[in-house]
Amino acid sequence: MSSPQMHVLAAFLRLTRKRRTAPDPTAASTEPPRPPAKLVQRHDVRSRSVDGFECHSVSPRDRRAERAVVYLHGGAYISHASPQHWQLISQLADAGVRVEVAHYGLAPKYTYRDAYPFVTAIYRDLLTDIDPGLVTVMGDSAGAGLALGVAQSLVGAGLPQPSRVVLIAPWLDLTLANPGIPEAEARDPWLTSSSLLEAGRGWAGGDDPAQPRLSPINGPLDQLAPIDVYIGTRDLFYPDVRRLEERAAADGAAVNVTVCEGAVHVYPLVPVPEGRAAARAIVRSVAS
Hints:
The protein is α/β, with parallel strands linked by helices and 288 residues long. The chain has a single domain, classed as Rossmann fold. The chain has nine helices and eight strands. The chain has helices spanning 4-18, 37-42, 83-94, 112-126, 142-157, 181-187, 193-204, 238-251, 273-287, and strands spanning 44-50, 53-59, 67-72, 97-103, 135-140, 164-168, 227-234, 255-264.
């Protein structure tokens, strides 16, 4: 049973977000936000350009990070990182983890064709400092879909898998073709398929949205690192996470799904009891 705070949040989102006009992908900002001042004061933050895109490395100030995360933020591929993303990043750094925050270019100016080499370059550079067995690839929503796609692409690139892949409410299929989506959309107080499909077209840049680099649920699972997935039942993406779980069982892949009853999209990022508990669990799993 979900908490009263989760019920209030769901009602608030339905009133303020669900009926809102879909965002215009052509109006998306091309300049990623700077790390928040509080995060810069608390942690060691270093910025660099990789393949023309910005990456922020966030590390604990008081010790050398033995473990690392490549973090890919959500936002339907048309929005930059939000304060909630930076909060989780700060929690990871507090636990002694170095976080590579990859600001991939947003649609429609940029597409997945730009993102894959950028994220792969960050991962490859990271492995010069940290063993892949101590690295996690993580993302939420759209960023989680990209994270899974990148993990799949490492097999063909000759790069080792990370220790694990963590997916928070992943957007696994740009086509939203799962027959369970309409029912899930009616329960979801936030996401709408129409706005997601529009954003997905921009991210695909004219290519087939069902291909694995855009819809990683159609890609291979059997050679990947163990995958942890966090999803709420009030999430439009819930049916595709269940489909991923079924595919993993059939392929013998290590996919562990944590389902939070009544939770909204990306619930580990929201300030309710279920979200805080999930964030703590994610940080513990990555830092240990």
